[in-house]
Amino acid sequence: MIQIFRGARAPGSSAVLDAMHRDRKHVFVDLLKWDVPVVDGCFEMDQFDDERAIYLIAADENGAHRGSIRLLSTDGPHILGTIFPELCDAAVPQSPDIFEISRGCLSMRLRAPERLVVRNALTTAAVEYALLHGITAFTCIADSGWLSQVLALGWDCWPLGLPQKVGRNLTGALRIDITPETPHLLRDAGTYRSAPLSFADAGERVLA
């Protein structure tokens, strides 16, 4: 199941979100050595983890974090528009129906085959969430290692500019168009993996 949370929570408010922020710290700070904020010594949380953030989280039956992504509407502050607009040759795409995907994080406890399953489940969940909520496109930033994976998922995407050196890595920005045809494109690429979407917000339904 993919759990969906609208808005950040303070540490200690949600076991699922806490587990996500802990794994983000393990991956982005401990492993990749990113210079990003850490709260209470164990939670990676940046300025975009606010009331606007939407989290798609894959967790096991015990609530352990397996993988997650964050969605931010591009009509407000987001990483590409606020920090890295130079990655776009033209204007940064900004619209209420265009969302940025960021902080894609897979648990380091997963084996390689499990990582692929969780990655595909989160990708599928993002597409289904977009279709449900009128999102027509995603943007994202990825280094050279992730760029090839994003392009290989099967959806319609293209670079927003030439990759540039950011820190030690070549990094680029992408736009991904979302249409009713997108799930079929994922199926054709072998990356479609549907899972129930459970909305953590009161009043929203579970989608099988």
Coarse structural class: alpha+beta
Biggest beta sheet attributes: 9 strands, mixed
H/E order of the elements?
EHEEEEHEHEHEEEHE
Helical run tally: 5
Task: Estimate the mean pLDDT confidence.
Answer: 92
| Number of strand elements | 11
> How far is it from the N-terminal to the C-terminal residue, by CA?
9 Å
Q: Proportion of β residues?
A: 25-35%
Please tell me what the overall shape is.
globular
Catalogue the unreliable spans: 202-208
Helix content percent band:
25-40%
Alpha-carbon Rg, integer: 16 Å
Structure description:
With 208 residues, the protein is α+β, with helices and mostly antiparallel strands. 28% of the residues lie in helices and 28% in strands. The protein has 5 helices and 11 strands. The strands form 2 sheets. Strands 1, 4, 5, 6, 7, 8, 9, 10 and 11 form a 9-stranded mixed β-sheet that branches. A two-stranded antiparallel ribbon has the order 2-3. β6, α3 and β7 (137-143) form a beta-alpha-beta unit. The protein is globular, with a radius of gyration of 16 Å. Mean pLDDT is 92; it is low at 202-208.
